[in-house]
Design goal:
Helices cover 59% and strands 3% of the residues. With 522 residues, it is mainly alpha-helical.
């Protein structure tokens, strides 16, 4: 499963490399990446005597499959969760899918790289966004059609979810079914925020509102919300985080096995850098939140007397290639150049911090206060709300993916530990139950709109778009009332003619950029 995860993460980058980069650059870089990937997939660490040994990762307690029913339930639950997300267009899609769908459509319909205008002089308009997650599906769509692209996107996402829940189960030493339930229903206490700080929206009734917006421009999204709204960033970030977690577990086992196996530390540090660079390619904001945890692992695994011993040059070099190419590409878009700190009233901050994870973090203190992950998680959850990047709240929502995941992981480690006190177990379960209202509202909205469509509506979205170019998309209103009478959020045929503010997150004039001048394929 770990090898499949590496393939899952690197395949889209290879498509990007040969779709966006000049062949004279792409071919040598691809050879380096292929060599590094080969080493990761087919080479085991060796002892100092040169003899090969079984990787300790196999000694981790793997998810148990004693009962076939448990495995079947895990698979069915994952498929159902994915179906209700709207990915593929088989159930209700939230408003953000307008942008997800149009990116996939343009990747399918335009040559790579996607140029919307490339005149001899004047602005060169290019699609500059986190496109990596869609590339395999867009490639299938180029060969077949839109329906095939969406079906493959559904399967691609299902594969990612199965990898994540499998790795999470291994890390928590529990079953995939339990890890999946934890991932689906883990959330902050948005229901209490809605109750104690009432606004016109969201409201507790009807139970299909978007509770995440109770704090206005501040939001730490639950994992179900992330899947239902921004799957293209969430899924690869989750895969990267769980890979880092199981590498850390394996390293601890290696460390306990004795000196003869510690030569593997170079491999692990190289893999950490490689994984993080891939996270940056798929979801740069999420990678910012993940970076401190990578530093923790690198610090733990480095012998500072000889810090460069056993470093795998091909892994480090591959990480640099992925990071630098992604950086040059993303910097071609200046939409997020506005940076700084934003002021938040103390009472608003305390309410947001405590209800969106801080309370749970504090309750874990007696058992986790010596764990550097616990310290970093609290610091990130407290500091992230003050950072402003661009004109929207994306940084707060996406940079928090990693600390929220680690908070969930530490919570899972605690509740699945049989030695914890009954009082602590009851307290944690009570908070988890209260937090579960947020994903339940997201799921309930999807169920309500999907059932309403299939049983009470006569028409689906008419995807034969009008000939008039669409230049802007109306800002979202109430999520449960978006695009009435249809399942899919398909308001945009293409980004080519878009001129509104939100579209600038996707379209950039790249004529004077380093990426366009020296790297991009023409």
């Amino acid at each position: 499963m770990k090898r499949l995860s590496y393939i899952y993460l690197t395949l889209p980058f290879f498509l990007f490399l040969f779709g966006w980069v000049r062949l004279t650059i792409a071919i040598p870089l691809a050879l380096i990446l292929l060599f590094a990937l080969y080493k990761l997939l087919f080479t085991n660490p060796s002892t100092s005597s040169g003899q090969r040994y079984q990787s300790p990762i196999s000694n981790l307690q793997s998810p148990t499959f004693h009962l076939p029913l448990s495995t079947l339930t895990w698979l069915l639950l994952t498929v159902l969760w994915l179906l209700l997300s709207g990915i593929g267009g088989y159930a209700f899609q939230n408003w953000d899918h307008n942008w997800r769908n149009v990116v996939l459509r343009d990747l399918m319909n335009f040559d790579w790289p996607v140029y919307y205008a490339q005149p001899e002089s004047g602005p060169v308009k290019m699609l500059v966004y986190y496109v990596g997650y869609w590339l395999p599906s867009a490639f299938v769509g180029k060969l077949l059609n839109w329906q095939a692209a969406n079906f493959f996107l559904f399967l691609w996402t299902l594969a990612g979810l199965l990898l994540v829940t499998h790795h999470l189960a291994s890390a928590l030493k529990t079953s995939p079914l339990k890890s999946t339930l934890l991932l689906i229903f883990f959330s902050g206490l948005d229901i209490l925020g809605t109750l104690f700080f009432p606004k016109d929206y969201p409201t507790i009734f009807p139970p299909i509102t978007h509770l995440e917006t109770w704090a206005g421009s501040l939001q730490y999204s639950s994992f179900t919300t992330q899947l239902f709204w921004v799957f293209n960033q969430a899924i690869p970030a989750w895969v990267c985080i769980t890979l880092i977690v199981i590498l850390s577990e394996a390293k601890n086992l290696w460390h306990n096995e004795g000196e003869t196996l510690r030569s593997a530390q170079g491999d692990t540090r190289g893999q950490l850098a490689f994984i993080w660079s891939l996270c940056f390619f798929f979801a740069p904001l999420a990678s910012v939140g993940l970076f401190p945890y990578v530093l923790i692992e690198l610090f733990k695994q480095t012998d500072f007397k000889s810090p460069f011993k056993n470093l795998r040059w091909e892994q480090i070099l591959s990480a640099l290639i992925i990071f630098l190419l992604s950086t040059f590409y993303f910097l071609s878009n200046t939409a997020a150049q506005s940076r700084g700190l934003q002021s938040i009233p103390l009472t608003n901050f305390l309410a947001f911090f405590l209800l969106e994870g801080g309370l749970l973090w504090l309750i874990l203190a007696p058992s986790k206060y010596c764990d550097p992950r616990w310290i970093v998680t609290g610091a990130l959850l407290a500091f992230i709300p003050f950072i402003q990047l661009g004109s929207d709240r994306d940084f707060v929502m996406r940079a928090s993916i990693a600390p929220l995941f680690y908070l969930m992981l530490m919570t899972g480690e605690t509740i699945f530990n049989q030695s914890i006190s009954r009082t602590l177990r009851i307290t944690l379960y009570a908070l988890l139950i209260l937090g579960a209202f947020t994903p339940l509202y997201e799921i309930n909205r999807s169920l309500y709109r999907t059932v309403d469509y299939y049983f009470f509506q006569a028409e689906d979205c008419n995807c034969d778009f009008t000939s008039d170019p669409i230049t802007k998309l109306v800002q979202p209103g109430v999520p449960e009332e978006e695009h009435p009478g249809t399942l899919t959020a398909d308001a945009l045929p293409t980004l080519q003619f878009m001129t509104d503010e939100l579209s600038q997150n996707f379209i950039a004039n790249v004529r004077q950029t380093f990426f366009y001048k020296y790297i991009a394929s023409r």
